[in-house]
């Protein structure tokens, strides 16, 4: 079931279904590799619960919760993936 | 014979190790400046090797060449307009897929490119293997491995760069980024249209121009209009048609489709050239981060680091400061003994040596501060600081990264304002620039120390701390106010890489530290030099003042009288008599000095302005001191010294000034309002110059001056009058 990236909890992973948002934000998200079909792993939320840290394409990136709510993901069962795997 | 000159540009993502490689190649032969017209730092270095003159240009680190941020525009324009002989793209080998995004964009520019797969040792330790030969084949360009921090492969890279730069081979037109069939068709058609309508006047290669126009690239559009005259609008019209065609077909903007397809192309390459082994190692960086950004430990550790940085900067820095101070005093004394007392000596000693000395003395502080900041940056902690603070900063409508310049503002506003360059969004940058001066800079601290130490001896620390906090609170309020009025707009996206923690290289830390300190000293030195001469001139002239009484004569008479009295008096009374008369002489001399200052140009200006400052509890001497503070805040103390104290330099200066301040009729409340004024009013000349440069606008500069000074007056007024209402003095 698709859900918003901002609804994902720490330690969960998913596959990007769609990146919404407008103009520069959307472009920037895509350019940083958050494109459709990419696997993401929610590494952690900041102590104040915003922003959050993701592992995408083998590197760590942070986005605000507000920005993460523009990304729709399909949750995948977590077993092996812990983010250190590439692709 | 002239040596052959080759220009090599280094491109790459932030954190790709680009700067390390640049430092390794150029060493200390670096020139740090600005890219023309913008505020992005430009680093270049010229070396002589292999019988050639190699000019290495470090392009700003970017993730893309989409012209969103100034850095991206600068990097792209350099390649497009300056045509470097070869571009080296530094790729983080452990981060191949994302790095290839920039790499493919550079490849599309049709310049000579070499890929350097940097930090491949780290990649290998993470089980990543990259087939360089395959990558060479697929993209038709040389690929080399390097380990920047161990200087491995860097020589080979240079040799390869020279070879490629000097080869006559045309840049291969094939095997570059391929898009899907429909897009390729669109690009092809549009490219042909361009070629037939541009009369050979296209500023850039046709395929690239076609792609950029399909992406609605503002800068390329503007260039087309400039360069192609009547054909320009026609071409843009055609681009529009193609764009809407793609849009109707894919139901998505072309730039989104192209980005998507570029990543698709990259995914294909990565699949062919990269293998990841299953075996997993402990990721140290990740474990470190689990502690440093931990829900409970993150903030305490962060504040500890900040505290440690300030301790180091100010406590440890105090020792070399003292040495420099005594050095300057000795030098000044040496000069004084050497030169006959005349106007030139006054100018040299009181103007230049004293003024420049007041800047040099801050060098230890600045070196330590920049060393700490370089340490934060090079270890990768700086982006964690932004990660931790973003929520808080976002409340004022700012980016987490704004925290860094604001933090540096406690050291010195000049580098702090320069640090706002890391912010991508212009509104964020201007807002941060406007509020950074409210972070009380280190040059203001001596003023608080003197005033708080004199009038609040019991709790000077608390008072000074409150001043700092007040600055922060007012910065927050200002931020909030401007964010909702003058600088309204969407916040910049906070999509920020959190690079792995690294052990910094001492060499690069030192280069980092020295570069910035040098810039600071140069700018401060020049402005301060001029400023101190002006201030000296205003306080030393006019030379022939009409005094209310003839001091010289009176002092002379007093001395004569003393001598005759002492001669006549018995021995036991002589000492007492001498003491008594000397006190009278000193008093006369002091009165004369005050009158001199009062009647100097500076004093006259202060007196004229006094009515303005009076409601805020600041007398004419305070006004003069504040005026001189425009040159540099550290001058405020010395002006107060001249105006309040006797100028007797044999005793401890600070003590003399404290006693004099107490006797002057200044009350604790007046001192507090003066401190607030110092905290908030127009920053020093060097900062104003920096604001002008970094905002690129006189309007914002004047606005900043007027706003801060009005706020300062208002706060001082409220404190003085409000305190008065409550019966405080």
How would you describe this protein?
The complex is a heterodimer of chains A (87) and B (729). Chain A has one domain (2-76): Ferrous iron transport protein A (FeoA) (SH3 type barrels). Chain A is built from two helices and six strands, in the order ββαβββαβ. A six-stranded antiparallel β-sheet of chain A has the order 1-6-2-3-4-5. The radius of gyration of chain A is 12 Å and the shape is globular. By secondary structure, chain A is mostly beta strands. In chain A, a hairpin with a 6-residue loop joins strand 3 and strand 4 (52-56). Chain B is of the alpha/beta class and 729 residues long. Among the domains of chain B are: 4-166, P-loop containing nucleotide triphosphate hydrolases (Rossmann fold), CATH 3.40.50.300; 181-276, Helix Hairpins (Orthogonal Bundle), CATH 1.10.287.1770; 298-445 and 460-506, no CATH class; 546-599. Chain B has a seven-stranded mixed β-sheet with strand order 2-3-4-1-5-6-8, with helices on both faces. Chain B has a two-stranded antiparallel ribbon with strand order 7-9. In chain B, helix 15 (363-379) packs antiparallel against helix 22 and helix 26 runs antiparallel to helix 27 (634-644). Chain B is elongated. Chain B starts with a strand and ends with a helix. The model of chain B is unreliable at 647-651 (pLDDT under 50).
Short characterization:
The complex is a heterodimer of chains A (87) and B (729). Chain A has helices at residues 23-31, 65-68, and strands spanning 2-4, 13-19, 39-45, 52-56, 59-63, 71-76.
Fold blueprint:
The complex is a heterodimer of chains A (87) and B (729).
Chain A (H helix, E strand, L loop, with lengths): L1 E3 L8 E7 L3 H9 L7 E7 L6 E5 L2 E5 L1 H4 L2 E6 L11
Antiparallel strand pairs in A: 1-6, 2-3, 2-6, 3-4, 4-5
Chain B lengths: L3 E9 L5 H9 L3 E5 L6 E9 L2 E7 L11 H13 L3 E7 L3 H13 L4 E6 L1 H6 L2 E3 L1 H8 L3 E4 L7 H13 L14 H17 L8 H9 L3 H11 L2 H20 L3 H20 E3 L7 H9 L5 H41 L4 H18 L2 H17 L1 H15 L7 H6 L4 H6 L7 H10 L9 H11 L4 H25 L11 E2 L8 H35 L10 H18 L2 H29 L1 H13 L6 H9 L5 H11 L8 H11 L4 H13 L4 H11 L2 H28 L4
Parallel strand pairs in B: 1-4, 1-5, 5-6, 6-8
Antiparallel strand pairs in B: 2-3, 3-4, 7-9
